[in-house]
Fold this sequence. Notes:
By secondary structure, this protein is mainly alpha-helical. Among the domains are: 38-71, no CATH class; 92-174, no CATH class. Helix content is 50%, strand content 3%. It has 6 helices and 2 strands; from the N terminus they run H-H-H-E-H-H-E-H. The protein has helices spanning 3-23, 59-64, 70-89, 97-106, 117-128, 151-173; strands at residues 92-94, 140-142. The chain has a two-stranded antiparallel ribbon with strand order 1-2. Helix 3 packs across helix 5 (117-128), helix 4 (97-106) runs parallel beside helix 5 (117-128) and helix 5 (117-128) crosses helix 6 (151-173). The radius of gyration is 17 Å and the shape is globular.
Amino acid sequence: MSTAIRSILCIHAMFILDFRAMSSPNAKSVPSKPIKTPCIGVCSTGIGDSVCRGCKRFSHEVIHWNGYSQDEKKFVDKRLSGFLSQACSHKCTVVDRELLKWQLDTQLVRYNEEHDEYCWLFQLLKAGASQIKDPSKYGFRVHASWTDLTLVALRDKIDEDFWVLSTAHYDRYLATPDLFEED
């Protein structure tokens, strides 16, 4: 089994376990910051996409977001941040987490501190990929197989991979009928 497939299966298992834990009657809700909408104002679900090309949520999640509990929003947020982290970490390595965080704060780039450093890196690339000349000064390096791309093109490729992961998840677990479900 390839490493990519094994990684996807591990992430899926993590989400299934999280969902089961959140759904159990004994699950305790830990107070945390409210989960903000991941909407970036570029919704493609209105034109028929099952997965938004902007925020990568499923169409039903976009529609029902304001009615979701904080636990439901947290579950969606965790799935999205996991996919984004995976897409980013396959092309870059954060070598100095504190330097990256310092640069984000210095450059006044918004990021979610509860997400991992690869989600932070993507926020940095979204905000200023065209202005970064030396990634090491921002605490990251680009993997050798991706150094031929500009950071803008790399950011776009990461975003595309993020969408592909979200779409594959939707197609596999929501669009496909459950073959094991009993009638």
